[in-house]
Design goal:
This protein has helices spanning 2-17, 24-61. The chain has 64 residues and is mainly alpha-helical.
Length: 64
């Protein structure tokens, strides 16, 4: 039990004194960048999905 309490104590101490936390503006910029990147990725995957669907439909319909 002593090892566990020591672990939590040192973890809290390190989080308070050794970690450099970003400022609010840095967090907002990072969040905006992640949002834009996620939207771009979703659009690219959506375009790929629609194009593959149309190609496969045309391929399967060629055998009818």
């Amino acid at each position: 039990m002593d090892k566990l309490s020591n672990y939590f104590r040192t973890t809290i101490e390190e989080m308070r004194y050794n970690v450099t936390w970003p400022s609010t503006t840095e967090l907002q910029k990072s969040a905006g960048l992640v949002l834009i990147g996620s939207l771009v990725f979703a659009v690219v995957v959506g375009i790929m999905d629609v194009s593959f669907e149309s190609v496969l439909k045309a391929f399967y319909n060629s055998f009818r």
